[in-house]
Amino acid sequence: MPRTARLPLSLLRAAACTGIVALTLTACGSGSGSTSAGTGSGDVKVGLITKTDTNPFFVKMKEGAEKTAKAEGVTLMTAAGKFDGDNAGQITALENMVASGVKGVLITPSDSKAIVPAIAKARAKGVLVIALDTPPEPESAVDALFATDNLKAGELIGEYAKAAMKGKTAKIATLDLAPGVSVGVQRHDGFLKGFGIDEKDPAVVCSQDTGGDQAKGQTAMENCLQKEPGINVVYTINEPAALGAYTAIKAKGREKDVLIVSVDGGCTGTQAVKDGTIAATSQQYPLKMAAEGVKAVVTYAKDGKKASGYTDTGVTLISDKPQDGVTSKDTAYGLENCWG
């Protein structure tokens, strides 16, 4: 897309409001995921590519990007894979955004390794690429990473689960994400570290992938309970998987004696902690990730200064049943700050 002649910002804003200035991503055909033009105006275009556009986590991330783009007076272009793991869709979206003249792209990689060549091509054309939430492999494939410390998020709920068990013998099920996704590996490893065990410890009696999906989480938990009915601790990659696990556990009449811990801290998940469905969750802040990412692209557009390295956007353990030696905040705090 050719670059438009520079107009006064007031005229651009008025034109955008009347539809005179419009930006639409095209050529996103089958398999490319959903794509849309967001808010904002002016010469600076910022891209946001999430794993999906249905997961509430990414909905909140998009909200943060939209609000910040509007405040900064820039155009936001958004796209998402059709499903978590849709690397081909993300590649197509990235290529389209680069062709449209974006100054920078914020991306949550569906496949941490497979997306790297496409990112390299974008950066070679002068596009600032910032990973949100999920780092690529290697992390140096992007200019910067704005994300939760996922290892720490897992470690916090591992420490909590260990303390909550109060010395009882643990039989642990881990409901993970999917192979090859760094965020899933980090949370899983962090949980084990926090609990004080390693991958080969006999306390881990079942491990299943869920894709972070509630229905798959339920199926995975059903499989684990069939394998080992005495499971009493469940680690889940996120709260949809946790809610699926709870459904399976409740069907067996075990909901009062199985401890479920998770990561995300969305409003629905935090409410589940308040309701007692989940014992504790590590709350992260996707709206902040996206907002800071948009600001970084704006800075790059203004003065050429590139964001670099890792920016920790924070994590807080949320529970209404605090444990000695484990720092946490209650669900009142969690609901006030869910994904903010």
How would you portray this structure in words?
The protein has a seven-stranded mixed β-sheet with strand order 1-3-2-4-5-6-12, with helices on both faces. It has a six-stranded mixed β-sheet with strand order 8-7-9-10-11-13, with helices on both faces. The chain contains eleven helices and 13 strands. The radius of gyration is 21 Å and the shape is elongated. Helix 5 (150-165) packs parallel to helix 6 (182-195) and helix 7 (214-227) crosses helix 8. Helix 2 (56-72) links the parallel strand 2 (45-50) and strand 3 (75-80). The protein has helices spanning 9-18, 56-72, 87-99, 116-124, 150-165, 182-195, 214-227, 239-251, 267-275, 286-303, 331-337; strands at 34-37, 45-50, 75-80, 104-107, 128-132, 144-147, 172-176, 204-209, 233-236, 259-264, 280-283, 309-312, 316-318. Residues 1-32 have low confidence and may be disordered. The chain has two domains: 9-148 and 285-307, 3-Layer(aba) Sandwich (Rossmann fold), CATH 3.40.50.2300; 150-283 and 316-337, Response regulator (Rossmann fold). Helices cover 41% and strands 18% of the residues. The longest helix has 18 residues, at 286-303. By secondary structure, it is an alpha/beta fold. Residues 46-306 form the Periplasmic binding protein domain. It comes from Streptomyces plumbiresistens. This is Substrate-binding domain-containing protein. Pfam families: Peripla_BP_4. Belongs to the bacterial solute-binding protein 2 family.
